């Protein structure tokens, strides 16, 4: 995950969303969390992309990436694949 996060310009921006809105002078700031759960084979490109990013960053070897991707493909084939993706939304009102 660190390797993937290193490809994002501000991987910890979510932690500061509320504070940034408050610092900008917004009021009634709220934060909500949503989780998307993906279970089908259509999830495989996202998962293999994570492995490719980790490999490109040098966090894992090509063999490790290949083995992990093969495991995920087998999970998808057996209907045992699950990926949870958290999404955070912060909002406020102008004063």
Return residue spans where pLDDT drops below 50 for at least 5 consecutive residues.
none
What coarse outline follows from CA principal-axis ratios?
elongated
- What percent of residues are in strands? 15-25%
Supply the helix-strand structural class: alpha+beta
**N-end to C-end Cα span:** 38 Å
Q: Classify the helix fraction into a percent range.
A: 40-55%
Average of pLDDT:
91
- Strand line-up of the largest beta sheet: 1-2
Element pattern in H and E: HHEHHE
Could you explain the architecture of this structure?
The structure is a single chain. The chain is α+β, with helices and mostly antiparallel strands and 95 residues long. The N and C termini lie far apart (38 Å). Helix 3 (44-56) packs antiparallel against helix 4 (62-77). It has a two-stranded antiparallel ribbon with strand order 1-2. It has helices spanning 2-5, 13-23, 44-56, 62-77; strands at 27-38, 83-93. The model has no long low-confidence stretch (mean pLDDT 91).
Record keyword descriptors for this entry.
46% helix, elongated, 95 residues, alpha+beta, single chain
């Amino acid at each position: 995950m660190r390797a993937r996060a290193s490809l994002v310009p501000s991987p910890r921006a979510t932690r500061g969303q509320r504070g940034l809105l408050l610092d900008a002078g917004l009021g009634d700031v709220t934060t909500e969390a949503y989780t998307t759960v993906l279970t089908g084979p259509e999830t495989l490109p996202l998962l293999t992309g994570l492995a490719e990013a980790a490999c490109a960053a040098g966090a894992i070897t090509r063999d490790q990436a290949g083995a992990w991707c093969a495991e995920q493909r087998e999970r998808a084939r057996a209907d045992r694949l699950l990926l949870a993706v958290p999404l955070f939304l912060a909002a406020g009102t102008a004063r």
